[in-house]
Write a structure and sequence with these properties.
Number of helices of chain B: 9
Strand content of chain A: 15-25%
Radius of gyration of chain B: 16 Å
Strand order of the largest sheet of chain A: 1-2-3-4-6-5
Structural class of chain A: alpha+beta
Distance between the termini of chain B: 44 Å
CATH superfamily of the largest domain in chain A: paralog of FGE (formylglycine-generating enzyme)
Number of domains of chain A: 6
Number of helices of chain A: 30
CATH class of the largest domain in chain A: Alpha Beta
Number of strands of chain A: 32
Largest sheet of chain A: 6 strands, antiparallel
Number of strands of chain B: 0
Oligomer: heterodimer
Distance between the termini of chain A: 7 Å
């Protein structure tokens, strides 16, 4: 796929109004000719151009001008060749020799150097060679740090630590060789476990599978060995400071090795990296690292980080996540991770307690050493009583206060912090302080702008609350003030929340725009009561503002569970995961190059934006702003899939199983519809849907669509291949293990396979379409299929006087609603015909059953008109066409609105598959 | 020491900003830009005392180095980063030239870098103007110039980053070079 078509081509801005296809063809012709002309002599070029471009002298002139009078050869040639730059940074060194070692290939890169696989001359063996490239070695402090890392390693002779073999400095770069651990790091192991668990293709993990009974004991044994290695380093006064899965290697022998002491620090001598800068990957940082305090980082920092790794090993989820580094660091400092027992039910309580103790925010509350941590884990493994105690109620309560304080420390002025510290310890000043706070609260509450001073208020409240909790009696006035203050704070919270909610509501309903006059009937155009301006879409600025308020509220009122639950930040930043099903990988040779793109869908205008690249698959939890999107996944030389999703509504993260099928295979069963301008011609048909409110025509790109609806047989195959749950209506109609259970006669059963599939909901229909390699048609696409380019109302012509005779009886009793499910199923079976029943080739375009049999799902959200608001409702989609039970077929463009979720499954709505011509 | 954040192996600020640029936060691109700008100036100051090791290389190398520091590999990141970085480079150089003309003092390092670029592009101020004009009609090829010329990315990679077939890229590059050459001549 190329973006070219969407860009204005060089040198041809004046042709931008040329039809897209022509322009593209012209570009391609230019490319081909340019390539041919390049190696030729001027005379040969002229000859070729004369021969090939006789029809287009402008093209010939354009090409010729590229060759005549060319700029000097070095014009716009970058000053430095790439290669030298590459080497300067330690890349492209394979084949070079350093000391006794020949570099073979690059294994990886970190902030502190590049690691190569290398071969040693004597003894002949593979080693891992880490080098500090010239670029960095010039910096004396970095060079010193690198030397120190090597020195550190040389002091650590332990089976759980990768040993260093040699050190050298030459040609401006620094290097050391270490034992090559064949295997992978713990990060990869966790990834494999996660994939295995979600039944994705993956190389096998080295540890037993997570869901097996062996996993826990085996993993814990290995983990204890890792703690032993940490203890060994700590005994040598070395703190690793960067314990994380990427720095733990798993050998094929199943052992864990601690690696990468690049950030390590010798406790006795201080460290060159003691700059206060936050270093390393944030997820596994200790609170003291997150706070960027250099003092107080000791071996217990490693205990903490190791525990975060253990947490992930125990539940395959990170303890702290966030969309920005700042968010993660803030959570590390202020929040408790989700209790392990809740994330993973199999985790015994004792184990959660041990992990929790090692992850205490305050170093003093953690295990005093890696050894103690390991000892308790081993006690657990031996089924002995552990030493760690779960936190008491009081402790948990004080943690809430703690969290307030730490959240506030970040915001409040340093002076306040100091006074807080001084206050807690000095008993003698008790009265004085209470009096001070009393005054503060009283003064602040009397100020008109007190809402801007909440930080000070909360700080004072915390102090008084701590005092109250400590059992002292407060002066009466202070108590009163405190109560008053609590009430104020509560109303403040409620007020801010209300404001945020209001912003969310108006943000969702969006911006104002004028209503197109052409969509109004002549009567409406003169009717003063008809609204001229509609509000619509989504206003991201308001949504952002709302989320900021909620975020700040959550920081201050972190203990308010309701608030946390109601305003999960994920609502603002939903995460998108895109993965390929195993079956796709088996079929598409170049699946590993699959790339995903986003296109923004505007449900109001029924347009779809340009492709925005997302990256190579698998995409895991990429933050995406809320909205309607079409996610495009393309596998080179194979095909692409389109997946339309509403992201970020109702907090749900979005996972796309990208069923990509080969383009030729999909197209074989579809019919092509050329790009066109489709006019709704919907006068007098206003139904409160976007199509007839904002615009009267839509530009449709070329697309493909199936001639008939998807049949039960195809859905059955979908259910069987994907293991998807059987639609509940099917189950209620009798389906247990197969369609045989419906109680149909053998000949009926054969017919059933050919009948249009129904009995499910909109999202199910979408999934089926995607499984078949396509997607649901959009509303205008389906309308174009049913009504033809001329947008006819009636399949046999468009004369309104035919309306009376446009009655087609499909023979279904009206009291359908009250029937039991099995009876509804019978009614459906009695009322429908096969998807390719020749008698049902209808409509101006000759597609099958465009008006009758079953109504059909589109992927288009309902755009509802509420007084002067156009509101996009992602939970309702447009369905089109009347179904078998309708006694009268009105027109070819019958619309319905139908909720997409499972409760609204019906036996009257099926689907046909559509697909864009190009991604 | 806040402004030195980046030079002391703190890739966090840059990569998190980059993530925000990608997530589309308004203003993130500008922040990233100014961070890189500050870094380049800092380097330039530091280089005053000692001669850069291999003069010509230094400038593009700066950009690559900044990227490597981010320790991140996806194409998308790389493209965005290199684009941001090369814009920084352009602006620093142009500002330097303007400053020189306005009588401000020279800087050995920047002088050398600017000289290198001018050897291959003529007047970099004129190039800047031409690029801004080109942006209106052909923003993609402006990115190509940034990536190819200012960030030193090789042509196959530029084509890939811009999602163009290589031969289309080559043809359009020839057109662009010609057009820009006429503009700065």
């Amino acid at each position: 796929m190329t973006d070219e078509g969407r860009d204005v081509p060089a040198g041809a801005p004046d042709r931008s109004d040329e039809p897209e296809r022509l322009r593209r063809a012209r570009e391609e012709r230019l490319d081909a000719l340019y390539e041919r002309l390049l190696p030729l002599s001027p005379a040969e070029r002229a000859a070729v151009l004369q021969r090939e471009c006789a029809d287009d002298p402008a093209l010939a002139a354009r090409l010729l001008s590229l060759f005549g009078d060319a700029p000097p050869t070095d014009f716009l040639v970058p000053p430095a060749s790439r290669e030298s730059a590459e080497r300067y940074f330690g890349g492209g060194l394979a084949g070079e020799r350093l000391g006794d070692f020949t570099l073979l290939r690059e294994l990886g890169r970190g902030s502190m150097g590049v690691v190569y696989l290398a071969e040693q001359g004597h003894p002949r063996r593979h080693v891992a060679l880490k080098l500090l490239p010239v670029a960095q070695a010039q910096d004396p402090s970095r060079a010193e740090r690198f030397r120190r890392e090597a020195t550190t390693l040389s002091k650590l002779d332990h089976p759980g630590i990768v040993p260093i073999l040699a050190y050298g400095e030459e040609r401006g770069l620094l290097w050391y060789a270490m034992r090559y651990v064949e295997g992978h790091d713990l990060h990869e192991e966790l990834d494999r476990q996660r994939r295995l668990r979600s039944a994705q293709a993956t190389p096998l993990p080295f540890l037993p599978a997570f869901d097996g009974a062996d996993y826990l004991p085996r993993m814990l044994e290995r983990f204890c060995e890792l703690l032993d290695a940490l203890q060994f380093a700590h005994d040598a006064f070395i703190v690793h400071r960067d314990v994380k899965p990427q720095n733990v290697l798993l050998g094929t022998d199943g052992r864990f090795y601690l690696a990468d002491f690049g950030l390590a620090r010798d406790e006795r001598f201080g460290s060159l990296t003691a700059t206060g800068a936050v270093q390393g990957t944030p997820y596994y940082m200790s609170p003291e690292q997150a706070a960027a305090v250099t003092q107080g980082i000791d071996h217990r920092t490693d205990v903490y980080s190791a525990a975060v790794v253990l947490y992930e090993l125990l539940c395959l989820q990170r303890a702290f996540t966030g969309s920005t580094q700042q968010e993660i660091l803030q959570k590390i400092g202020t929040r408790e991770p989700r209790p392990l027992e809740l994330v993973e039910h199999r985790i015994p309580r004792d184990l959660a307690v041990v992990c929790g103790k090692a992850m205490e925010k305050k170093p003093a509350k953690r295990y005093a050493s890696a050894r103690e941590f390991a000892d308790d884990l081993r006690r657990f493994l031996r089924h002995e009583a552990i030493r760690a105690r779960p936190p008491s109620f009081l402790e948990r309560a004080s943690r809430v206060a703690e969290r307030h304080r730490s959240a506030l420390l970040a915001a409040a002025a340093a002076a306040l912090v100091l006074s807080l510290g001084a206050y807690v310890v000095q008993d003698l000043r008790f009265r004085e302080v209470v009096a001070g706070d009393e005054q503060t609260i009283g003064r602040l509450l009397d100020e008109p702008d007190w809402t801007t001073r909440t930080n000070e208020l909360v700080l004072a409240r915390d102090r008084l609350a701590t005092l109250r909790a400590s059992g002292r009696s407060l002066p009466v006035r202070a108590s009163e003030l405190l109560d008053r203050f609590e009430a104020r704070l509560a109303s403040f919270k409620a007020e801010r929340r209300a404001k945020a909610e209001a912003l969310l509501v108006s943000g969702r309903s969006g911006r104002a725009f004028p209503r197109a006059a052409s969509v109004l009937s002549p009567e409406e155009q003169v009717d003063p009561n008809v609204v001229r301006e509609l509000r619509t879409g989504r206003n991201d600025e308001e949504l952002d503002a709302a989320m900021r308020i909620l975020e700040s509220l959550a920081t201050v009122f972190g203990d308010d569970a309701e608030l946390r639950a109601a305003f999960d930040l994920r609502r603002a930043q939903a995460r998108l995961t895109v993965e390929l099903p195993t079956a796709v990988r088996d079929r598409a040779a170049r699946w590993s190059e699959a790339r995903a793109f986003l296109r923004r869908v505007d449900p109001i205008r029924e347009t779809i934006g340009a492709l925005e690249p997302l990256g190579v698959l698998p995409l895991l939890e990429v933050p995406v702003a809320s909205g309607e999107y079409r996610i495009v996944v393309e596998i080179p030389d194979y095909g692409f899939g389109e997946f339309t999703r509403t992201i970020g509504v109702d907090s749900s993260d979005c996972t796309v199983r990208a069923w990509v099928r080969s383009t030729s295979e999909v197209r074989a069963s579809l019919r092509r519809i050329d790009a066109c301008t489709f006019r709704y011609r919907a006068e007098g048909l206003k139904m409160g849907m976007g199509c007839s409110e904002e615009h009267d025509h839509v530009e449709l790109a070329t697309y493909w669509v199936s001639e008939a609806a998807v049949s039960n047989g195809e859905v059955l195959q979908y259910l069987r291949e994907t293991g998807t749950r059987i639609p509940h209506l099917w189950v209620q109609a009798g389906f247990v293990t197969g369609p045989e259970d419906f109680g149909l006669t053998p000949s009926e059963l054969a017919e059933w396979y050919e009948r249009p599939a129904t009995g499910f909901h909109g999202l199910f229909a979408r999934d089926v379409a995607e499984y078949l390699g396509g997607r649901l048609p959009t509303h205008p696409e389906l309308e174009r299929v049913k009504r033809g380019l001329a947008a006819l109302y009636y399949p046999w012509g468009d004369e309104p006087d035919l309306q009376q005779s446009a009655t087609v009886r499909l023979g279904i009793p009206p009291a359908l609603r009250d029937l039991s499910i099995p009876k509804k199923f019978r009614a459906y079976f009695g009322g429908t015909r096969g998807v390719r029943d020749p008698a049902y080739r209808q409509g101006p375009e000759g597609f099958f059953h465009t008006y009758g049999n079953v109504s059909e799902w589109t992927e288009s959200c309902v755009v509802e008109l509420r007084t002067d608001l156009l509101v996009v409702d992602p939970n309702q989609h447009i369905t089109m066409g009347p179904a078998w039970h309708s006694p009268t077929i009105h027109t070819l463009c019958n619309h319905n609105l139908w909720s997409v979720d499972e409760r609204y499954s019906t036996f009257d709505t099926g689907l046909r598959v559509a697909k864009s011509d190009v991604p | 020491m806040q402004t030195l954040a980046m030079s002391d192996s703190d890739p966090r600020t840059i990569s998190s900003l980059l993530a925000e640029v990608q997530a589309g936060r308004p203003g993130a691109r500008e922040e990233l830009f100014s961070l890189l700008y500050a870094e380049l100036h800092l380097r330039a100051r530091a280089a005053m005392g000692r001669r850069p090791p291999t003069g010509t290389m230094q400038a593009t190398v700066l950009v690559h180095e900044a990227f490597l520091k981010m320790n991140s590999g996806s194409w998308n990141d790389r493209k965005h980063f290199l684009l941001a970085a090369s814009q920084v480079m352009r602006h620093v150089l142009v500002d330097y030239r303007r400053g020189r003309r306005a009588g401000r003092g020279g800087n050995e390092f920047l002088e050398e870098v600017a000289q290198d670029f001018e050897d291959r592009a003529g007047d970099i101020e004129a190039l800047q103007v031409a690029l801004e004009r080109l942006r209106e009609s052909d923003p993609v090829m402006v990115q190509a110039v940034e990536l190819r010329f200012y960030a030193g990315v090789d042509e196959a990679e530029v084509a890939r980053m811009l999602d163009l077939p290589l031969r289309t890229y080559q043809r359009r590059w020839a057109e662009t070079r010609k057009k820009l050459f006429e503009a700065v001549r």
